[in-house]
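Researcher: Please predict.
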Amino acid sequence: MAKTVGIYGGSFNPVHTGHLIVASYIAQWGNVDEVWLMLSPLNPFKAKDKSLADTAVREQMLRLAAEGSHCLRICDEQLSMPVPSYTIDTLDALAAKHPGTHFRCIIGSDSWAGFNGWKEAGRIISSYGVIIYPRPGYPVDAAQLPQGVTVVDAPTVEISSTFIRNAVAEGKDISYFVPAAVAEFISSTHLYSNDYANQTDK
């Protein structure tokens, strides 16, 4: 029997509880067998983001966050592909490597609003399918969605990676906003702090 896997891609700079709540919800209530968290080394829409931590650092935090989960896995497919990374190319590569698995693309409703601008957006829908989760300020009318696109009623958590980075830079306690292992990693490496920025600028 074919397995269905939801691919939840992102910069994860850093991964936080909002990401994990969405991923866990879809893995358990989104008509997929698993959700693979896929790190994007360079999002085409964030190519000029100077706050982006090294790929290896973000991958390590992602693995710490998903450790022990029975329904979340880490997908490193894009790390060996040309940058910037395009979703359709990644889905094609995954489909070729896992012929017994059907992949679906997971995106927020904010991304759906601009989905027509994605590379081969129509083929992503027709060949793979899209699962949309809600984001504040971007309502989706399920009745207007094309075949192959579904919306899930996942919890809405208004936490962003930008919020986490700013909180760290201000010396705030982020222990309730990211997994404990990720909070410890950020603290021990001084990631996103002014000290870390000074070290990396040298």
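Model: The CA atoms of residues 47 and 198 lie 22 Å apart.
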